[in-house]
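Chapter summary example.
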Amino acid sequence: MYTITTVNVLGSPMEVFVFRPKGPGPHPGLLLAQHIPMGHTGLENDPFTLTTAQRFADNGFVVAVPFIFHWWPKTDPMEKKREESRDDWIVADKQAAFALLKALPAVDHNNIGLVGHCWGGRVAWLAACHIPQLAAMATFYGGNVKKALGAGNVPPIELTRFIACPVIGFYGNNDTNPSPADVEDYRAALTAAGVSHELHQYDGAGHAFQNFPMPERYHQRSSDAAWLKVLAFLKDKLVLATLNQG
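The structure predicted for these 246 residues follows.
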């Protein structure tokens, strides 16, 4: 199903879960930024992230999922990890995972994308500002893009001009973080930066509408529609580019 590789990030060991499609490749690569389900102790106990990674692998991507909460013991509460997270750590995590993915023999290193949900949706935006080699980025209901984490860091939205790849985003109109007004600010920032983008919004859906393990949040109609769109987007930007290079 997956293998686990450990990389060193600023002196801290970080697990990276790698999912592989069938065939020798080269395959397009995909970084998947996890959300933060409360109470989980590691990626191995996060069914949404593991299932989502496998779905992408089944569609032809080599997927790398770094466990970005390695800075704390796994038994520490997620509230603590959320409060103490720093954007400079997050960037270092994603850069290390990108380097690992790019070096895999089965990966087309010219065609690597990034996807993130919830907390990971914000992580995806932030990382795209710092990894110019990305070929595509997809963000799902990432809140707090207008907020910096950690002293000395800058809100990701203020770094939007550094995004060098096309962006697709998915949001529920019943969400409060990000709210529809936030999404308009996201759209304005991408437009001002000249970043190619498409942001999709869904009536009746709230935050984490793809999170099937949480029936109180899961909105199947919106989730299914968003899945088809993100898959088409990634295949257009990554898979077809890989095939054309072959």
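To summarize the output: The mean pLDDT is 95.
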